[in-house]
Design a protein that fits this description.
Number of strands: 11
Order of helices and strands: EEEEEEEEEHHEE
Shape: globular
Distance between the termini: 41 Å
Radius of gyration: 14 Å
Amino acid sequence: EVQVVQSGGGLVQAGGSLRLSCAASGFTSEDYTVNWFRQFPGKNREGVSCISGTGASTYYADSVKGRFAISNDNTKKTTYLQMNGLKPEDTAVYYCAVDLGVSSCNFYLRQDLRAWTYEVDYWGQGTQVTVSS
């Protein structure tokens, strides 16, 4: 059984940093992606970042490019989202999701990015990130 467990998040002042973790288990394939989404109150989830299982492929939404960094620790099958330079507009519930059978983040870029959230298979429980001004 595939499980995705998130940790991290919390409250930080603008300009501060947080690190989110996403631990995946229950599969052995190297063909997968780990994806971070966020959801603002009353809005649909939006894609934030993606990394392939090998780490060879990554993607960042324009809104976080240069501030967020995604990485894998394959020994722990854990993916991290390091969030620096946080802004109040980054306040949201952040979700990690694993997509099996996909080896590159480019898979999502070839289609309407609004479909990205519907492509992934297994979701974490979500974690609140709040950035105060």
